[in-house]
Amino acid sequence: MKTEILKLKKEKNAVILAHYYAPADVQEIADYVGDSFYLAKIAKSVEADIIVFCGVRFMGESAKILNFNKKVLVPDLTADCPMAHMVAEGKIAEMRRRYDDLAVVCYINSTAELKCQSDVCVTSSNAVKIVKALENKNIFFIPDKNLGSFVARQVPEKNIILNDGFCPIHAKITAEQVLKEKEKHPDAKVLTHPECEKEVLEISDFIGSTAEIIDYAKDSREKEFIICTEEGVSCRLMGDNPHKKFFFPEPCPCCVDMKLNSLKTVLDVLQNEENEIIIDEKTRSRAMLPLDKMLELAR
Ligand code: 13P
Ligand code: SF4
């Protein structure tokens, strides 16, 4: 399958982007592997005719919005991030009525419809920087309450109003599970994604996006790490650091939607060019504004 994928990719002038949470064999055949922010920047700049995005639906949508002339294919159209939908109907309009100077800050893990109602997008690697750079005092942070409250603690000068969305995978990691690992590996440093609950962040040595966790582990002199994020990062962590040890809380966090990407589904979409992400022009021109603002403010 790998040989066939590489052949078709060349023939059709396609490029494969994969998130760190995609299965290891999919990461292996991808041209670009990264966190949400890196992949959004790549999606905007690639020149291939076809982008095959191995992530979840909102990532494919963002790629299409940022690079509208490309054909964006996703290996499985049902691979969706549950958190991307977690904002109650009418909530954004209600907040805008309540605060004159409100900025709606939208985590990139959100539907195109939510982006259309937002002022700026953020990812876990640039949220603090972007919120700090905004002139607005009042911020409605959607959809993730955990990333939102992490940002609120880093930027106390802003009034950050939280929404009650969450990532079901990261929110399942408990402080108790982490402490259990810590008992088994007392010297291990705890590296945590900000989508985790506050109690987990409080007992962590480092908090960052998937790419930041990977960089931290690589640069660190320490030899053992407890990783509080989705298990797909282990592929890069172990590849970069064969002499270091990585442990995950039990049960090991696994995003079933990300795992819908497979060599078989990648090959299928390259062959039949089905599962195209379609966005209408009106949605694309509105949803592009917060994405472009993110790219500008994060520069
Ligand atoms: P990052 O890619 O920003 O680390 O976010 C993780 C995530 O949950 C993506 O769905
Ligand atoms: Fe969504 Fe969480 Fe899966 Fe990321 S890990 S795609 S935030 S459900």
Give a summary of the structure in a few sentences.
It is built from 14 helices and twelve strands. It has helices spanning 2-11, 24-29, 36-45, 57-66, 91-98, 112-116, 127-133, 145-154, 175-184, 198-202, 210-219, 234-240, 263-272, 281-297; strands at 14-19, 32-34, 50-54, 71-73, 103-107, 120-122, 138-142, 159-162, 189-192, 206-207, 224-228, 245-247.
Features:
single chain; 299 residues; alpha/beta; Rossmann fold; 3 domains; 4-stranded parallel sheet; binds 1,3-dihydroxyacetonephosphate; binds iron/sulfur cluster
Q: What is this structure's SSE topology?
A:
Elements: H1 2-11, E1 14-19, H2 24-29, E2 32-34, H3 36-45, E3 50-54, H4 57-66, E4 71-73, H5 91-98, E5 103-107, H6 112-116, E6 120-122, H7 127-133, E7 138-142, H8 145-154, E8 159-162, H9 175-184, E9 189-192, H10 198-202, E10 206-207, H11 210-219, E11 224-228, H12 234-240, E12 245-247, H13 263-272, H14 281-297
Parallel strand pairs: 1-2, 1-3, 3-4, 5-6, 5-7, 7-8, 9-10, 9-11, 11-12
This protein binds 1,3-dihydroxyacetonephosphate and iron/sulfur cluster.
